[in-house]
Structure formats: C-alpha cells, structure tokens
Amino acid sequence: MTESDQSIVKRYEGNPILSKKDVPYPVETVHNAGVIKHNKQYIMLFRSHLRNGRSIIGLAESNDGFHFKVRPEPFMTPATHEPFATYEEFGVEDPRICFLDGEYLITYSAYSKHGARIALARTRDFKTVVREALISQTDYRNAVIFPEKFDGCYARLDRPHSEISPWSIWISYSPDLIHWGRSKVLIKPLAYHWDEMKIGPGTTPIKTHKGWLNIFHGVFKTMDGAVYRLGVALHALDDPSRVLGVADDWILQPEDPWEVSGYVHNVVFTCGAVSEADASIKIYWGGADTVMCVGTARIDDLIDLCLSKSRPAV
Ligand code: BMA
User: Fold this and answer.
1) What is the rounded CA–CA span in Å between residue 191 and residue 212?
2) CB distance 197 to ligand 1 below 6 Å
3) What are phi and psi for residue 222, nearest 5 degrees?
4) What is the mean pLDDT of residues 162-167?
5) Helix (H) or strand (E) holding 272
6) Checking CA distances to 280, which of 70, 114, 231, 293 falls within 20 to 30 Å?
C-alpha cells in the first residue's frame, strides 16, 4: 500500500526515527513512546522488550523532534519496592507524559500475574523519577491525564477491560491524583467500523482553540489478526466529558514496511504528540511494536475531521 497525498498525517521521510540499534543496552524493540517538550528539548520515554519478553522504559532526547539520542541507562525498570514491585513483576509499558503544576506526570501500565494496572510516577527533570501510586485496579490500560484541572479536579481518560461491552474510552476525576471516581463512558467502538473491536486513549489530550484533541487507537479484527490504527476525537474545553465529535475516518493506518511487519504486525500505536507554535502537531507512534515513527498534521485539519465527518460517540 502506498500513502496518498490526501493523508491527514504526513509521515516523516526519515522514519523509523528510533530502533533497537540506537539503544546502548540490549533490547529487542523500541515502541509506544510518550513524548513531551522540556526546556526546549523533546523527551521521549519509550518502551522496550527485553529478551525475556518483559518491558522496560528508556529515555531519548532530541533538539528537533526527529533525531533522538538514547541515554546510556534505562529510565524505569520494574520496581523493587512495594507496593509497586508486586504489580510490575512482568514489566512497565506504554508511558504517557503530562505537564501539570510544574511537574511531569507519567502514567504507565504495570504488568504482573495480577494483570495490568495503571501506575503514576512524577518527575521534574527527567533525571530522577518517583513512583506515586497505583491508580487503578487490574485490567485498566492507556491512561492519559489532562494537562489542566476542571473545577479543581484532575481528569483522565482510560480504558477498562470489558468482555460485555467492547473496550471503550472512559473519563474519571480526582481531587489528588490518587483517588479517582465519577467515571463515565465517553466513546465506544462502532460495529463494522475500523475500530469495532476496541479503542483506547493514545496521546495526552492536546489543547486547541476548539477543544481537547484526543488521538486514540482503534482495533479491527481480521482473518489475519488485529489491525491497530489511530483516530481522533474532540472534547469540550471546559468539560472534557462532553464529546464534540469523533472522526469517522482513521487518521493513520499501518502502511510502511516497519508498521506492517515486526514484533506484532499491522500496528500503529501512539502514546504521545507535541503541538507546535505553527499550529501543527507531531504525532509519535510505535510501528509493529518494534520501532518509533513520527508524522505531522495540521491541528485545524484534525479538528475539522472531528466536527465535519463524525460518527456517534457511544
Ligand atoms: C496492546 C498493547 C500495546 C501494543 C498493542 C499491539 O494491547 O499491548 O502496547 O502496542 O497491543 O500489540
């Protein structure tokens, strides 16, 4: 498949931008990275599989958002202290980064024989990191925290596991980042649609003049396994539980060879995006759970797609 000029996300011609050969310690993959700008530098927290099949989180830095250099040591490996050690025994996965109140909040999946939980860590400088709490029970993944509070409360999107209703995007609120409640379902997969099997939050929500952009992943099951694509929705600025539109079309699907084939084939999966001063956005995604890629889009094009060509949210 080749990409047409109509694509809303323009792939960077230098993709993939990071792969295992760039990592100065032994890993088998580099994927699903949270990315944020810190002191004019792009910081990428990426997931890597070790040869035992479990994941750790590494850190890479860049001046331009395209060329990254990996730090010599991993940034987070499974915790050795409780209560985290029990729940991170199988690894730490898929970090998202949110800047709020002068610090960076990192949400990630803690994996263990008890399932996947959402964990929260904090850093101010990406040199030291402190684990704060496990902020969900088991069978939750893909938590993204809004970079603003609403009526004094933190807000997050996440994706509980469910066999009864397809895996959907929910919102919850918290007074202190630890205790979460007032949960409400916001967006569900749509039958016989590119996201009919599951959806989940992807990037930390991006503030725009028309609302919060929520770039999420959607999964479609085929005879050849699942295909992971990216979609976009817009939430009201003052009330993120109000969905203004969910784009009917996907914005990115696996097309490049390193997205179509790899550790898990046919996957594009995002955990991070950076909005730029020129009203564009850099979207970062893991290709086939193996490499990191980047592309750019116009923020107004994403907003238009949500508002002019939308499908039902629930
Ligand atoms: C999901 C998560 C992601 C991964 C995707 C495709 O369930 O495990 O980390 O990228 O599957 O394998």
Assistant:
1) 25
2) no
3) -120, 175
4) 89
5) strand 268-275
6) 70
Query: What is the DSSP-derived secondary structure letter of residue 167?
Result: B
Query: Does the Cβ of 285 fall within 6 Å of ligand 1?
Result: no
Residue 109 Cα: closest atom of ligand 1: 9
Q: Structure tokens of 311?
A: 């499908």
Mean pLDDT of the 281-302 span: 98
Decide: 29 and 47 in contact? Cβ < 8 Å: yes
- From the CB of 289, is ligand 1 less than 6 Å away? yes
Sequence-separated (6 or more) residues with CB below 8 Å from residue 245: 233, 234, 306, 307, 310
Angle, vertex CA 183, rays to CA 84 and CA 241, nearest 5: 120
Q: Give the integer Cα–Cα distance in Å for 138 and 151.
A: 28
Predicted confidence (pLDDT) per residue in 222-240, tens digit: 999 999 999 999 999 999 9
- Distance, in Å, from the CA atom of 266 to the CA atom of 73, rounded to the nearest integer, reads 30
Q: Measured between alpha carbons, how far is 174 from 157 in angstroms, rounded to an integer? A: 12
**55 CB less than 6 Å from ligand 1?**
no
* Tokens matching residue 235: 């939430």
Say how far apart CA 225 and CA 254 lie, in whole Å: 13
**Is this prediction's pTM over 0.85?**
yes
CA of 150 to the centre of ligand 1 (A): 30
Residue 210 token pair: 């028309």
